[in-house]
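We modelled the chain as a single entity of 88 amino acids. Its sequence is:
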Amino acid sequence: MMNKHNTVNYVGVSGPLENRIKDHKDKTNDGFTAKYNINKLVYYEEYEYIYDAIDREKQLKRWTRKKKVDLIKSVNPNFDDLSLDWEL
């Protein structure tokens, strides 16, 4: 996820993605994403098993910002909010 200006990013793992995105957009929880207004879903991956998702999250968090941005651009070059059409 990123903020409006694509200057701050957030990597996380969750259960149902739609519910988590709604929490971020509504600023349900105080914390990093609320503080930096991170409410735009620009990239996501789906996994069958939570431990695979956690392993991937750890890997991505070790990456440089540039590497994360390059990954996002490979599938979403305009940093569009992928959740805009979702019913949240």
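As a brief sanity check on the tokenised model: The longest strand covers residues 38-40. The helical segments are 17-26, 32-35, 50-62, 65-75.
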